Amino acid sequence: MTRTDWLDVRERLSRLSALAGAQAVFGSAGHGWKLDPPLEAEELAGLEAQLGVELPGEYRSFLLQAGRGGAGPAYGLFPVRLLDGRWRWEGDGADLTDLDSLGRPFPHVEAFDPAEGLPEPPDEEDFDSTEAFDAAEEAYWERRDAVVYDRRHRVGLLYLCHLGCAYREALVISGPARGQMWADDLAGDGGFRPLYGDDGERLGFARWYRRWLEAAQDQASSKDA
To answer: Which of 8, 60, 78, 185 could form a disulfide with 89 if both were Cys (CB 3.0 to 4.6 A apart)?
Structure first.
């Protein structure tokens, strides 16, 4: 059973950072195995009041017990900070989160691709000139991107992590998949999909984070041996 309290995490990160192999773990140079300070209860209350929704329990307890961001999967957890009187997450892709719509339900329970069913791009052989083809191709990709990257696909998603090359992972805040971690693979024409553990079960925040922690510790320890 996955541990859902976080009282062990800072000590584990500290021990892990001391291993010679820790620097070989992907993304560790960015977060340095450090967590930002946890949120105070009144800060969390202010954050949730601004969002208009209570955060899923596993992530909520992480913010209170472990930290508001920092060491975590890939380049680390986007930290949540109070800036100019407004709470927001910071990081490469954190702005994909629509803070004003987190209380609206993310409607999906299965993987989906916003590009599914869209027309194929134009074929150069169908045009009399390179200029005409270039214009048609540019117009096609503008229309396609407007559909694929429509912010409505991200309603109810809280982006927490950047994997590199514009691949990101997010926590479902509202809707039938609330509490699950999903991947945003739009950068690779892959759409959105839920994340699974080795047992075939969908990952919530706690299993997602601890799976990374275990893998990072195994990798760093093997390099250290």
So the answer is: 78
CA-CA distance, 149 to 180, in Å (whole number)? 21
Identify the residue whose tokens are 């990709």.
Answer: 141
Give the pair of three-digit tokens for residue 79.
């930290």
> How far, in Å, are 128, 136, 149, 214 from residue 73 at the CA level?
50, 41, 24, 11
> pLDDT digit string (tens) for 131-143?
999 999 999 999 9
Residue 3 lies in a domain: no
DSSP 161: E
For residue 155, being part of any structural domain is answered with yes
Give a yes or no: residue 135 inside a domain. Answer: no
Per residue in 47-61, pLDDT (tens digit) is 999 999 999 999 999
**Is 167 contained in some domain?**
yes
CATH number at residue 93: 3.40.1580.10
Q: Are 69 and 35 in contact (CB under 8 A)?
A: yes
Per-residue model confidence (pLDDT) at position 4: 72
Distance CA 25, CA 13 (A): 12
Residue type, 147: V
Does residue 50 sit in helix, strand or coil? helix
| Strand partners for 193 | 183
Residue pair 202/1 in contact (Cβ under 8 Å)? The answer is: no
For 82-105, what is the HEC assignment? Answer: EECCEEEECCCCHHHCCHHHCCCC
